[in-house]
Amino acid sequence: MLNIEEIQKIIPHRFPMLLVDRIIEIEPLKRAVGIKSVTMNEHFFQGHFPGKPIMPGVLLLEAMAQVGGVAMLEPEVNRGKIAFFAGMDRVKFRKPVVPGDQLRMVAELIKSRGNTGKIWAEAFVDGELVAEAEFMFVLITN
């Protein structure tokens, strides 16, 4: 398990772009499970949407990718690198994420070659699938 301080030692994201609060399971270079508690205090709810707050899909994807990034960057050999998006496929949003939801995000490495790879990620709220996507990434030395 990794707390927020440990996560910040692995990935470079900071407020307002750090979108994972805790890693509850990790198998470096294979799999990670992360948690994001979504509150009404999130900055993006000011404009998305007034009177009907919904977490923007692009930020949901970013949160899922950050969990995958922790799995890829946790080993010491990858520390200091940054995982950049190279593409996304098979993206599906199944249910809106709203204040009060707790996201449970599962990211699994499905392919890796050199400094590139693919991760399959899913996000759940109360055990219900809310989003899924395949992320292609490249690891770049910072």
Automatic annotation (TrEMBL):
It is found in: Cytoplasm. Its EC number is 4.2.1.59. It is an enzyme of class 4 (lyase). Pfam families: FabA. The keyword Phosphoprotein does not apply. It comes from the Bacteria. One of its GO terms (molecular function) is (3R)-hydroxyacyl-[acyl-carrier-protein] dehydratase activity. Its main location: cytoplasm. It catalyses: a (3R)-hydroxyacyl-[ACP] = a (2E)-enoyl-[ACP] + H2O. The active site is at H48. Keywords: Cytoplasm, Lipid A biosynthesis, Lipid biosynthesis, Lipid metabolism, Lyase. One of its GO terms (cellular component) is membrane. GO terms for biological process: fatty acid biosynthetic process; lipid A biosynthetic process. PANTHER family: 3-HYDROXYACYL-[ACYL-CARRIER-PROTEIN] DEHYDRATASE. Involved in unsaturated fatty acids biosynthesis. Catalyzes the dehydration of short chain beta-hydroxyacyl-ACPs and long chain saturated and unsaturated beta-hydroxyacyl-ACPs. NCBIfam families: fabZ, PRK00006.1. HAMAP family: FabZ. Belongs to the thioester dehydratase family. FabZ subfamily. This is 3-hydroxyacyl-[acyl-carrier-protein] dehydratase FabZ. The lineage of its organism: Bacteria, Bacillati, Bacillota, Negativicutes, Acetonemataceae.
